[in-house]
Write a structure and sequence with these properties.
Blueprint: E1 2-5, E2 8-14, E3 20-26, E4 32-38, H1 39-52, H2 64-67
Antiparallel strand pairs: 1-2, 3-4
Bound molecules: zinc ion.
Length: 72
């Protein structure tokens, strides 16, 4: 799916991601949570987790010049 990012507002990249996730996390009160995500929410969590790991959408492209599209 083509993704954009507020960190790179002029860039869109085709990013391949898993369609289904099983997430283990903690809420703001420190309670352990486990849940499954699919579709767009699975994509959003993978995108944001990439940010925590210092990865941007451009890092998913082997050839940025070919896959980058400027908005309008
Ligand atoms: Zn982003």
């Amino acid at each position: 799916m083509i993704e954009g990012c507020l960190s790179l507002p002029e860039v869109q990249v085709n990013v391949q991601r898993s369609d289904r996730l099983y997430v283990k996390s903690y809420d703001v009160k420190g309670r352990k949570k486990q849940f499954e995500l699919t579709g767009l929410w699975a994509r959003v969590v993978q995108h944001e987790t990439d940010h925590l790991d210092g990865i941007l959408i451009c890092d998913h492209s082997e050839n940025m010049q070919m896959e980058t599209a400027l908005k309008d």
